[in-house]
Amino acid sequence: MQLSIRNSLKGKIAGITRGPVSTEVIIHLAPGIDLVSVITTESAERMKLKEGQSAYALIKSSSISVGID
Questions:
Q1: Which residues neighbour 8 within 8 Å (Cβ) at sequence distance 6 or greater?
Q2: Running DSSP on this structure, what letter comes out for residue 61?
Q3: Half-sphere CA count of 17, side-chain side, radius 13 A
Q4: Domains of the chain listed by start with CATH number
Q5: What's the CA gap between 50 and 1, in Å, rounded?
Q6: Beta bridge partners of residue 58, listed in sequence order
Q7: Which own/partner contact pairs does 48-51 have at CB distance under 8 Å and 24+ positions apart?
Q8: Residue 13, C-beta contacts closer than 8 angstroms, at least 6 positions apart
Q9: Long-range contacts of range 35-40, CB-CB < 8 Å, 24 or more positions apart?
Q10: pTM
């Protein structure tokens, strides 16, 4: 698979919280570093996501916000 997205981080699915419309997926990237993504429940079911499964976090820069104190 080739992607145009430059920010691809490999990890393992550490948690899944399914809802009727959206599903929260936690991807463990490294010790102390987890990334949380909210996807449609339909997509989560179609992909058959499971805890412990390898996964990629694909980050498109136009959808990332930055904040500081």
A1: 56, 57, 58, 59
A2: G
A3: 5
A4: 7-54 (2.40.50.100)
A5: 21
A6: 8
A7: 49/13, 49/16, 49/23, 49/25, 50/13, 50/16, 51/13, 51/14, 51/15, 51/16
A8: 25, 26, 27, 28, 49, 50, 51, 52, 53, 54, 55
A9: 35/9, 35/11
A10: 0.83
Q: Is 44 helix (H, G, I), strand (E, B) or coil?
A: helix
Question: pLDDT digits over 25-38, tens only?
Answer: 999 999 999 999 99
Beta-bridge mates of residue 23: 18, 39
Integer-rounded Cα radius of gyration of the chain: 13
| Full 3-state SS string of 19-41 | CCCEEEEEEEEECCEEEEEEEEH
Q: Name which of 46, 55, 63, 52 is nearest 9 in CA terms.
A: 55
Mean of the per-residue pLDDT values of the chain: 89
